[in-house]
Amino acid sequence: MGPSRRHCPTCGRVPAPVPANGAWPFCSDRCRLADLGRWLGESYRIPGDPAGEGGVAPRDDDEEGTT
Asked: CA 25 to CA 14: how far, in whole Å?
């Protein structure tokens, strides 16, 4: 059984090996940047409930004067 061949997640072509391809696992910088653009444009989403608006976490010193 030979090694499995991965495909570029953007275009489906087989990328060059790592030493010759700095954009691994993508086949080119163009595909790498297209994927990044999808993440930044929120085309990709992780399923689940929304995380909220990023509220402020309570500070540790808020409880000091209560004892």
From this structure: 9
The answer to whether the beta carbons of residues 31 and 7 sit under 8 Å apart is no
pTM exceeding 0.85: no
The one-digit pLDDT tens for each residue of the chain (67 residues) are: 445 688 999 999 999 988 888 999 999 999 999 999 999 998 888 788 777 666 666 677 755 555 5
Check whether domain 1-44 has CATH 3.90.1150.10, yes or no: no
